[in-house]
UniProtKB/TrEMBL annotation, chains A, B:
Cellular compartments annotated: Membrane
Cell membrane in keyword set: no
Keyword Magnesium among UniProt keywords: no
Keyword vocabulary terms for this entry: Electron transport, Heme, Iron, Membrane, Metal-binding, Transmembrane, Transmembrane helix, Transport
Catalytic activities: Fe(3+)(out) + L-ascorbate(in) = monodehydro-L-ascorbate radical(in) + Fe(2+)(out) + H(+)
Annotated protein name in UniProt: ascorbate ferrireductase (transmembrane)
Length: 236, 236
């Protein structure tokens, strides 16, 4: 399932949406919801860290990690290092972001882990971690044999894409869940904040879609690459 | 992005999940929520038609339409007919399902089209319809020239997969939205109905995932097929 567009061109659209999404989530949490705080008597400020870290960390930086293989004019070992480093940052920010959701719940006496958003979120972060470790061990250090790497590569790409799409779905659930809580407490259903949150969700989904379209597009022809934009095996 | 598993085997898992999902949504709407009705003074019974038609119609039958090309032991023109007929049924049931949501809202004085679920739902059904018409005109009747069909095929597969994943995400939003409303009205967050709805959502996501895995798996070797499991051009 590949398309004829150039990966670098598709990634430009993704970068624009990444900047837009980051601005929107900051406008929402800082401009409309009072700002961000690690410790505060206003527990809502602790919650606000959650969407910021999940969007800018897990989704945006994670998407850049995915696209890095297809868009950067670097040699394979360097792209591999960029790929795993960006994913490590995304994973770390995602873990801190999930921690802030629990912190907010615990300090506000709100139940944990009853919603589909929370269930899928735990699934996503666990799979993301497993996928990162699996990638590290098989493709980087110590690295599997060429035949193991060749066998593992399609599953690495498939599981990675699956986890990323699941992360996008989980983020969408988060926007809807938070906005529904706010609307149940009186926020206008057609007001500016409701539109802002829904547009942030749509920008998130569009960004993720262009990340996936980048994977399915054509890598630069001057680079040595396989169908995923890189050669999985050095001696091939 | 293809994997070495046989498409037919992957589709067996999808079929099992389809039956399970259909049972779960009927147990929820009939067993827990009072049943289904087109006209009733209890407007909740009108709403109940919505998840049943969206899951069994758009998601389950739509998924069978997608998989039909990869799993049925038929010649290409027959598979094409099955593919477009099942998609037409899925689309029709989806449109009726969306109509029942509006009907329920209007008869209960609930606002329409303010949530992310409703926005994406309108997007999904519109794109589904466009995709169906586009497929009909280009690949079936009157049918494009061989070069047009060859050019159009990867985009047909890509857009179809995109719309289907978006439908899965929209369905997940629907489960979460409805359950959040119920929980705000006193339903137990860790009660059996809450678990039932969340498990139905997870079965829906798993079913859709196995539908996508079927597309990415290997079609039967005795059938003539291209990378998508069928030859787009008769004279090739």
């Amino acid at each position: 399932m590949t398309i004829g567009l150039k990966a670098v061109h598709v990634s430009y659209v993704a970068h624009f949406l990444a900047v837009l999404g980051a601005i929107l989530v900051l406008v929402w949490t800082i401009g409309f919801r009072g700002g961000l705080a690690w410790e505060s008597s206003n527990k809502n400020l602790i919650f606000n860290i959650h969407p910021v870290l999940m969007l800018i960390g897990l989704i945006i930086i994670g998407g850049q990690a995915i696209m890095s293989y297809k868009m950067l004019p670097l040699k394979k070992p360097q792209k591999k290092l960029v790929h795993l480093t960006l994913h490590a940052i995304a994973l770390a920010l995602g873990i801190i972001g999930i921690y802030t959701a629990f912190k907010y719940h615990n300090e506000s006496n709100i139940a944990n882990l009853y919603s589909l958003h929370s269930w899928l979120g735990i699934g996503v972060i666990s799979l993301y971690g497993i996928q990162w470790l699996f990638g590290l061990v098989v493709f980087f250090y110590p690295g599997g044999t060429p035949s193991i790497r060749k066998e593992a590569l399609p599953y690495h790409v498939l599981l990675g894409t699956f986890v990323y799409i699941l992360a996008l779905g989980t983020a969408s659930l988060g926007y809807l869940e938070k906005l529904t809580f706010l609307e149940n407490n009186g926020l206008a259903k057609y007001g500016s904040e409701a539109f802002l949150v829904n547009f942030t969700a749509i920008v998130t989904i569009l960004y993720g879609s262009f990340v996936i379209f980048t994977i399915l597009s054509q890598a630069p022809p001057d680079e040595e690459h396989d169908q995923y934009g890189y050669t999985p095996i050095q001696n091939e």
